[in-house]
Amino acid sequence: MPDIPPLLPNSHQALLRNLPAAPGRLALLGVTDPRLLMALPGGGLAFTEHYGVLQQLKVRPDWQAAFGYEDPGLMPDSMDSVVVFMPKARSELTLRLALAAHLLREGGRVILIGEKREGIAGAVKQLKAMASDAVKLDSARHCQVWMGEPQRPESMGPAVAAFDIGQWLSWHQVEAAGVTLEVAGLPGIFSEGRLDDGTRLLLEALADMDLSGPVLDFACGAGTIGAWLHCHSAGRLAIDGVDVQAQAVLCARQTYERAGVKGEIRASDGLPAEAGRYATIVSNPPFHTGVKTDLSMTTRFLQQAEKHLAVRGDLVLVANRFLPYAELLEKHIGACRVLSSNDRYTVYHACRRLAVRHRNTDG
Ligand SMILES: C[S@@+](CC[C@H](N)C(=O)[O-])C[C@H]1O[C@@H](n2cnc3c(N)ncnc32)[C@H](O)[C@@H]1O
Questions:
Q1: Does residue 249 sit in the same domain as residue 344?
Q2: Which of 48, 130, 175, 259 has the fewest CB atoms within 10 Å, i.e. is most exposed?
Q3: Atom of ligand 1 minimally distant from the CA of 269
């Protein structure tokens, strides 16, 4: 067994224990810790939906890094073994398994790895639907490791099922503060198929403001906020968006195109240094890493936002009401007030002060 770097996620450690089960050209779908590649003997394809992880995968020689389900490097019939790590959202597993079937050559094998708390027990049913011979290889590191050989429908002969992410795209209607729009969805995206309650409270607060452009929507998800602002301002505002997740970037571009929004959507882990300066920044920011509450992403975003928000510019964000954002906004942006609140969420508004003063607690 290869050397296992300390603190590698359980699912990655479970793969390293079972490497002989994954011979030949290898694809890894859903790498969350790039150090896994250092522990593997050969190269292959490493797929992620996270733009920050992608940057670290790209520097590994011998490995081809792929970002999201429309990456041009996802070639059919090209792999002998495909490892599927359980995604955070169960709905996305279907997508990962379909991609695995697309990548595998005839007779290749899929290896599904996940923890009990990630829902591996239920996921095995999905694996067996495509590979009825699937067997459990191992139970270790709180994970189960399953392996099967996907059968191809006879009618298909040796040809592989084409994988087209466009076929997985769905549309739903969103209505908030008198504005109706259509929003794109894909498995794994935040609040797929419905308007999030926090986002709704944010939109209702924005409806009462006279915002200036250009606007940036940080952590834009499917592009709901930008498309809503475009419609609400009758096309007056240009709204850029950034998100770390490949499905979000794809959906936001689709949502923008359908609504005719002026603005660019880009993939970024945090606010990109090359982003311009905005009169307004809006956000329903992330506060989870997996299942744990994690304020570090929003703290980093607010630190970065100082540089991208014009003096006297507005920053409006919604957050779960138990999160201590007022203090962070005061510290990094300027005077902060609560615009609205309900039993779950609070909408904050901060106006950027002339010069940002830091208390000596700054690191
Ligand atoms: C609470 S959701 C909000 C999505 C959307 N704005 C809405 O209201 O429907 C947070 C979003 O943050 C994105 N995200 C998480 N970490 C990020 C990071 N480091 N940089 C940029 N976006 C991130 C997630 O992919 C997710 O789409």
A1: yes
A2: 175
A3: 20
Measure the CA–CA gap between 52 and 188, rounded to whole angstroms. 17
Interval between CA 76 and ligand 1 midpoint (Å): 31
Total-model pTM: 0.93
What is the Å distance from ligand 1's center to 36 Cα?
A: 25
Query: Residue of the nearest CA to atom 5 in ligand 1?
Result: 221
Tokens of 351: 């106006």
- Three-state DSSP at 237 gives coil
pLDDT 10s digits, 252-278: 999 999 999 999 999 999 999 898 999
Handedness of CA 169, 173, 174, 177 (dihedral sign): positive
Judgement on whether residues 15 and 112 belong to the same structural domain of the protein: yes
**Domain-terminating residue out of 106, 133, 166:** 166
Q: What is the pLDDT of residues 50-85, one digit of tens each?
A: 999 999 999 999 999 999 999 999 999 999 999 999
